[in-house]
Amino acid sequence: xxLEIVGEPLFEIRPVAWSAPDPAEVDxxxxxxxxxxxxxxxxLDKFRGTPVHAVGRTTAELAExxxxxxxxxxxxxxxxxxQTGGGxxxxxxxxxxxxxxxxVPLEVPTGVVIAERIVYDAAPIAIPPEFExxxxxxxxxxxxxxxxxxxxxxxxDRLGIPKSALRxxxxxxxxxxxxxxxxxxxxxAEAPNDAALLALAKDMCQDR
Length: 208
Fold this sequence. Notes:
elongated; six-stranded mixed sheet; 4pyrrol_syn_uPrphyn_synt_sf; 9 strands; alpha/beta; three-stranded parallel sheet; Rossmann fold
């Protein structure tokens, strides 16, 4: 898309010890992040015969590469996947949701039961000097989560980075709700996926 993009981590992902329930009591795994398969550890092996309902394509691809069978792949968040999957799929009534410590709350459809286990955590890290210098020069910042938005805004306050020089493109409206202050611009993508977020970023570049 002819966009010049620099990636910068705001968190260090760390595994969390967890205890798996009886696989016989789980009809499907509900997975909202590829980090589950990166950091879930040996407990995941107990569920290799359990179908995966993945939030998106990246998560589904990593699940398959880890030896799991993906039954459903969503495109607009776990809640939508749950409504169209758990509410109507025959035999799928008992989910095991594997997630990070910070996760989006879900409305559980009638007749569906969700057990939850936290398998990883995201520890915030400080913005390094080189990235700080880039931010002071201004630009468009893409944010993928509410936690990232909170931490990024806090780091800008801590370092005294002028918010007015930064334009923010968020993956969804829940993220923009976390952003306060005199930013240059705040917008969210039309759909919660990278293609829509990049399209928004390109539009914001052209608006410049």
